[in-house]
């Protein structure tokens, strides 16, 4: 059984894809044991409630001190006996203490074809605006392991989509998001199956 904690900041459509993947059996032998939101306005918290998944808000609003915040996130992950941490639209930088404690067990979904349009300052809609400004014919999404850099860990899966002449950042984001949901579920499925193999 792969015990997954999902870290979120906003709407949580990627979180929903993971919930659906686990509940529908596409991700076998896995359970979402914790949802951690970086702010109390995140719609992801409603999704957690609806699916009966324990959730916590740990962010600047209730833990202004970065070290105390990191300690609290670590405490939640540990107490849920987390095997895999999934950053699904998590807009904060994880502290190096957390990355070290969960080395090789944290993955992130990023809305571009890494190494393009990633790193500091590239998040959410800004990524798609930059892709359009760069005149790209293709974009996509990447699931990768998280290391101490920003969007720099080893890649697990990428999915590609065309950029259309009439695209706005919003239409491109919507097309990329569908791909995100697909490759995030595939990546977690792969990790769950790998854990099952190892436990045999
Ligand atoms: C997604 O596009 C995700 O890739 C992006 O934020 C969006 C969250 O959507 N993440 C980043 O930009 C992180 N660098 P969601 O809340 O509907 O899953």
Report on this model:
This protein has helices at residues 13-23, 44-50, 66-79, 96-101, 125-133, 169-199; strands at 2-8, 30-37, 55-57, 84-87, 106-110, 138-145, 155-162. The chain is α/β, with parallel strands linked by helices and 200 residues long. It has one domain: Formyl transferase, N-terminal domain (Rossmann fold). Strands 3-2-1-4-5-6-7 form a 7-stranded mixed beta sheet, with helices on both faces. The longest helix is centred in the last third of the chain and has 31 residues, at 169-199. The chain is globular, with a radius of gyration of 16 Å. The site of glycinamide ribonucleotide (GAR) has 14 residues, from α1, β5 and α6.
List keywords for this structure.
200 residues, alpha/beta, Rossmann fold, 7 strands, binds glycinamide ribonucleotide
How is this structure best summarized?
The protein is α/β, with parallel strands linked by helices.
Distance between the termini: 12 Å
Low-pLDDT residue spans: none
Q: Work out the count of structural domains.
A: 1
Q: How does the helix and strand content classify structurally? A: alpha/beta
Would you state the CATH class?
A: Alpha Beta
Number of strands: 7
Shape: globular
* Rg over C-alpha atoms, rounded to the nearest angstrom: 16 Å
Topology order in helix (H) and strand (E) letters:
EHEHEHEHEHEEH
Count of alpha and pi helical runs: 6
Classify the helix fraction into a percent range: 25-40%
